[in-house]
Amino acid sequence: MEVSSVGDAGPIAQAKYFPEKGIILGEARFSDRDLTPQDQKLRPSDITFLQWKDAASRQAKVDFKAANPAEPKTPDEIKAAGDALAAAEAKAVKTMRAFVGRVIASKSTVESMQTAQRQTGQLLADTSRFERGADTQGKRDAFDLMMGTDFISSLNHMLRDHAPALGKKQISSIVAYPRTFDGEKGRKDIAITVNFEDIP
């Protein structure tokens, strides 16, 4: 399912939602097009959650209809079907497992990532991985540095603020990789996958 958040000057964000796989694919953001008054704006984390919830609910309805083709007839059957569908939708919303940012435009996020790479001895041209609870303090510090970036802290806000619907989740790992790379000029384009895990 592909969704664009529409602002006064056109799309302000584009993403694809795959609830059957638990993945959100963030395509692009155009914050300068969002002309909504500041006090009326939704945070990016809230927009992402609401669109995910809608996509997951739609998928749950499709799956539920396929598994239960017969229309309920009696009041008891109608109520039972409604309760079962609501449970299926709630379960579907909790399937979120990863957010893939295809283009990271934030300069501060890219700079923090490059610092974290140097701290952990990872090459700028290669895929880099930062994990919660890593085996050395330097790697744990690099993970914390990445967690503080605008892009990833927004996802952390989403997990925290919408825990009742998403279930208790936390960011387990962050994987950054170049989409194009020039050895002399540095990265031209950065993509980041943020993986989530359930908190026991």
Give a brief rundown of this model.
With 200 residues, this protein is of the alpha+beta class. The protein has helices spanning 44-67, 75-93, 107-119, 137-147, 150-161, 163-166, and strands at 2-7, 10-18, 23-29, 98-101, 128-131, 169-182, 186-198.
Overview of the molecule:
There is one protein chain. By secondary structure, the protein is an alpha+beta fold. 42% of the residues lie in helices and 28% in strands. It contains 6 helices and 7 strands. It has helices at residues 44-67, 75-93, 107-119, 137-147, 150-161, 163-166, and strands spanning 2-7, 10-18, 23-29, 98-101, 128-131, 169-182, 186-198. The protein has a 7-stranded mixed β-sheet. Strand 1 (2-7) and strand 2 form a beta hairpin. Helix 1 (44-67) crosses helix 5. Mean pLDDT is 82; it is low at 2-12 and 30-42.
Features:
single chain, 200 residues, alpha+beta, seven-stranded mixed beta sheet, 6 helices, 42% helix, elongated
Q: Classify the oligomer.
A: single chain
Which band does the percent of strand residues land in?
25-35%
Q: What percentage of residues falls in helices of 4 or more residues?
A: 40-55%
Specify the biggest β-sheet.
Answer: 7 strands, mixed
Give Rg in angstroms.
20 Å
List the helices and strands and how they pair.
Elements: E1 2-7, E2 10-18, E3 23-29, H1 44-67, H2 75-93, E4 98-101, H3 107-119, E5 128-131, H4 137-147, H5 150-161, H6 163-166, E6 169-182, E7 186-198
Parallel strand pairs: 3-4
Antiparallel strand pairs: 1-2, 2-3, 4-7, 5-6, 6-7
